[in-house]
Amino acid sequence: MAATIIDVAREAGVSISTVSYALSGKRPVSDRTRRRIEAAILELGYRPNAGARALAGRRTYVFAVTEPLRPDTYTPTHMAFVLATAKAARQYDYDVLLLTQEEANGGLQRVTGSRIVDGVIVLDVLDHDERITLLRTLDIPAVVVGVPADPAGLVCVDLDFAAVAQLAVDRLVDGGHRRLGLLGHPAAAYERGQNFPVRFREAFVSCAQSRGVSAQVATPERTIADARSAMAELFDGPDPVTGLVMHCEDSIQMRALDELRARGLDIPGDVSVISAASTFDTTTFTPALDVIPLVPDQSCSRAVELLVEQLEGPIEPRVELLPPEYIERGSASAVLA
Amino acid sequence: MAATIIDVAREAGVSISTVSYALSGKRPVSDRTRRRIEAAILELGYRPNAGARALAGRRTYVFAVTEPLRPDTYTPTHMAFVLATAKAARQYDYDVLLLTQEEANGGLQRVTGSRIVDGVIVLDVLDHDERITLLRTLDIPAVVVGVPADPAGLVCVDLDFAAVAQLAVDRLVDGGHRRLGLLGHPAAAYERGQNFPVRFREAFVSCAQSRGVSAQVATPERTIADARSAMAELFDGPDPVTGLVMHCEDSIQMRALDELRARGLDIPGDVSVISAASTFDTTTFTPALDVIPLVPDQSCSRAVELLVEQLEGPIEPRVELLPPEYIERGSASAVLA
DNA sequence: CTGAAAGCGCTTACAG
DNA sequence: CTGAAAGCGCTTACAG
């Protein structure tokens, strides 16, 4: 059988409370005692029993992360957020329990009701997300990565997608471009109100409008044929786009570059291209692309920070938007004409 | 505060042991009593406290799944296994804790040592995997999806990759093809000894050999340029391949089909193509491809089954290989010459 | 078919 | 700086 705190106490010649306090640091312990306890722990290979700890201490050191991973969604980006959350959680000694689509709501009820977890991180939130509706009734610390339509009472963290769109549009318009195009996510993402595609598209369109330039949006499925016809839409009409913003998965972006090549269009000579809110590396593309990156580690470590804060008691609801950064790679410049 | 078993017992007018037994079914309970208990549970919104349950019952109802999700690995396929595991686990009332690369070994020690989990599912195993080495010392139920170089003492489940290769090679050779090609994973996968690419490639080569036909292997990185040159390798030499087996991610397979198109090669007129051990849908390709699918649900639900069995006590170590199935779509036929 | 009670392995006031 | 002990909320022999 595994060693218990009693074994450690005996081995170290102290009481179990002293062992517990030495471990938690919640009470001063003399150096000499601490060393003996540490030696005993090493000697016995002791690890505190999680169940007992949870029961007595009312802390499980597990967070739930709910990420639907819908079948038509781009897995690598979404998983990058899950991994970033796991990594950030470990900084606070927390593990993560993964709740997926099948059991989004049932799972939330189960793990919070039975106190398997101390808090919840909500990923890939929809404008109107039933997980949020449920969460409001649940009385458990939670942080939303993303911003639902009604964020009242919630703690939300996200990249400032409106600022991303603004940056991209300004860059292009300042460069002299008057006809902008957005290569976006599949239509289904917008229809279901998936948070970041929607917010980005809206900001893109309204920024273009307020700068007085045209904005065309194409939303291809993830098939070759669709990527092609989306590019045809943007580039083969009477008023072809000269400033392209891509907010879609990497394979589509690579396709799009193929298509520009096939048309003999030079970047940035004929067309300026910006990759917006991308989680992947755009330097491996040909050519390397200017990018306004979406950094999962950033959003998630802040989210975990805010979740940990809530362990001590409720905090002020808020929407925290992280400022974007424009990274120059030479794919967007002034219109040369 | 949340309701406890004491509240339920009081509300139902029975003892707490009766409530517990009604919940677990480990002792008969009269219908009348059961109904009153169920009513009380509903009334109070009772959910058993996981920590207390784990402490008293020595069962946490959580499995760990360790999936490194290496950065250069194809996320969708790997996540499909994680999701399939989570889904299968839920059939037995289990949740899953996700352990990723950062914390593969430390995480395993932690969650098993502190009894956060009742068992471990090991995903994406390498030929020589330090997780396996660790696991052998750990005394916790475990099932490996995949087969390491030395499976002694382990319970392993996997698709029979050798049989997949056999099926593919036989199909092509029976169709008259004498020059086979394999479009495989990136070289790094083989170098690190990633299980299924290695096993597949070896079987492919040896099956071809024993059928007396040539076998060429290309292992492109996931870039356009590399996919192109890999296809050039296979199809632009003096003895171009006529039977192509693809064991790589979907975007590369799509690229490969592009490349065949670009060469004016007809499928299956000029080249027969089989997609091997693919987790994605090959009917959306142009043309739809014959496929010998790798079905995560299959491997994972069997793995979970075997893990649950071990909860009752040790079981015989074994390597269970699941038989593959050939699905015809018309992309592989006899050489028309 | 049901109940009273010990015990799982911790944390944390309470006491000194 | 340290200890003795109550108590967290369950499960499961033990008893009837």
Automatic annotation (TrEMBL), chains A, B:
Protein name listed in UniProt: LacI family transcriptional regulator
Organism annotation: Bogoriella caseilytica
Domain HTH lacI-type, residue spans: 3-57
Keywords: DNA-binding, Transcription, Transcription regulation
Pfam families in the record: LacI, Peripla_BP_3
PANTHER family: LACI-RELATED TRANSCRIPTIONAL REPRESSOR (PTHR30146), LACTOSE OPERON REPRESSOR (PTHR30146:SF153)
Any GO MF annotation of the entry: DNA-binding transcription factor activity
InterPro entries reported in the protein's UniProt record: HTH_LacI (IPR000843), LacI/GalR-like_sensor (IPR046335), Lambda_DNA-bd_dom_sf (IPR010982), Peripla_BP_I (IPR028082)
Domain of life: Bacteria
